[in-house]
Design goal:
Layout (H helix, E strand, L loop, with lengths): L4 H29 L8 H26 L4 H25 L3 H25 L9 H29 L4 H23 L17 H22 L1 H31 L6 H33 L1 H20 L4 H29 L2 H29 L7 H24 L5 H8 L1
Length: about 425
């Protein structure tokens, strides 16, 4: 793959862009949540999550309409230039010490542009590799992009631990992200303007009509779920509630790391503890990927999903109500397992129960539900959670919600079970 010049250039745009995404997102969290100059609240965390997730959900379904009309190389070039300029402006806002709402507004625009960049990279890939190489390219390119984003976030995390916390280090990270975005723009400029398409089509419908058709397509996907594909609708409903609970617990763990497990003035210690919690939760995601195939063969897809939700109902109050470091870290690991296990089950049910003609639209609805419920959880938690993160009613309420979801989903699958293994294979095939 690396012998292909245009593939290398497109990959360079992705790697540099996602490297800066990682740096910028960690600098955003560090400035708003772990800055020693200000006292972070659950509302601040909700704002950060909204900035990171909502553009992907609300803009995502409509990006294809524009990317099929604009030259994709220009989207990559101009989009990264815009992001670089906006992030430099954000650095000035940090230096000026403006209120968080201005900083978050600038970050929201950067994240919205990011949605077009990522979709453009995926849409452009078939223009730089042959058809028989596309599977390999789709394995290599997004994987290296994810590695780059992780490396960027990890580097920013280390910089925050090494440099003295405060405005200078926050500004340095934001400027670094701006320079990396500029590098991505320069990498895009090395490609001919028309290389990445799209092909001009005179019969293409007007933009307003195309946007309207996209919105109608999403509504058709919802109607298909509710009317004809109840097993997929039940799985999506259970997963949406699970994501809501996970969002509540994420905000709780953030506040515990910031104010309970560490001295509130020790922002470096708070970030270190949070890093451990995120790492354990990520390890739980990996464990779920390893054990889910075997457990779904033994319990069935719906049985494993019910088991995940029930395990969360037990472990959240059982471990979290101690408000002690080690039990909460154990809960983070277990929640990683059950959350990813439930997602694997939901993906499988949707893929197997939904007709191919509707599958793309249903997954777009899935993405919106997942991210919006996550942000809604953070917003609601901001109203009831104290700064310390220690709230017995919140944890008990989350445990009860997990338990009710497990019971509700178990009853739903008894009435309308999802497709069995042979039916699922035939549907996906």
């Amino acid at each position: 793959m690396f012998r292909l010049r245009d593939f290398r250039r497109l990959l360079a745009v992705r790697v540099l862009g996602q490297l800066s995404d990682g740096v910028f997102q960690v600098s955003l969290a560090a400035y708003v949540i772990f800055s020693p100059e200000q006292q972070a609240t659950p509302a601040d965390i909700a704002s950060v999550l909204a900035v990171m997730l909502l553009p992907f959900s609300l803009i995502g379904p409509f990006t294809g309409v524009l990317l099929d009309r604009w030259r994709r190389r220009q989207v990559l070039l101009l989009g990264n230039l815009v992001r670089s300029a906006l992030v430099l402006g954000t650095a000035l806002l940090v230096l000026a010490g403006v209120p968080n709402r201005f900083f978050l507004l600038a970050a929201l625009v950067v994240t919205a542009v990011n949605r077009f960049i990522l979709a453009g990279l995926s849409a452009a890939l078939p223009r730089v590799v042959a058809g028989d190489q596309l599977v390999t390219a789709n394995a290599v390119s997004p994987t290296l992009g994810t590695v780059a984003a992780t490396a960027g976030g990890g580097s920013a995390f280390v910089v925050n631990l090494v440099l003295p916390r405060g405005t200078p280090s926050d500004t340095a990270l934001v400027v670094l992200a701006a320079l990396l975005y500029l590098g991505a723009a320069l990498a895009a400029r090395r490609m001919p303007p028309d290389l990445l398409g799209p092909v001009h089509r005179p019969d293409r419908p007007p933009l307003r009509q195309a946007v309207g058709e996209t919105a109608r397509g999403l509504l058709d996907g919802v109607r298909h779920l509710v009317r004809d594909r109840r097993p997929a609708a039940h799985a999506l409903a259970a997963m949406t509630v699970g994501r809501f609970c996970y969002g509540v617990l994420l905000v709780t763990v953030l506040m515990l790391c910031r104010y309970t497990f560490n001295d509130p003035a020790d922002t470096g210690g708070g970030m270190s503890t949070l890093g451990v919690a995120v790492g354990l939760s990520g390890a739980g995601f990996f464990v779920a990927a390893v054990v889910s195939p075997a457990l779904t063969r033994r319990l069935g897809v719906s049985g494993w999903m019910v088991g995940c939700l029930a395990a969360a109902a037990l472990c959240v109050p059982g471990l979290g109500l101690t408000f002690a470091l080690v039990p909460v870290m154990a809960a983070a690991l277990l929640l990683g397992v059950v959350t990813q296990g439930a997602k694997i089950c939901t993906d499988t049910v949707v893929q197997s129960a939904v007709e191919d003609d509707y599958r793309g639209r249903v997954f777009a609805v899935y993405d919106v539900l997942s991210n919006v419920s996550f942000v809604a959880a953070a917003a609601l938690t901001a109203l009831v959670l104290p700064l310390s993160g220690r709230s017995v009613p919140v944890l008990v309420g989350v445990g009860v919600l997990y338990a009710l979801t497990a019971l509700g989903y178990a009853r739903a699958v008894r009435r309308t079970p999802p497709p069995g293994p042979s039916e699922a294979a035939a549907a996906v095939g």
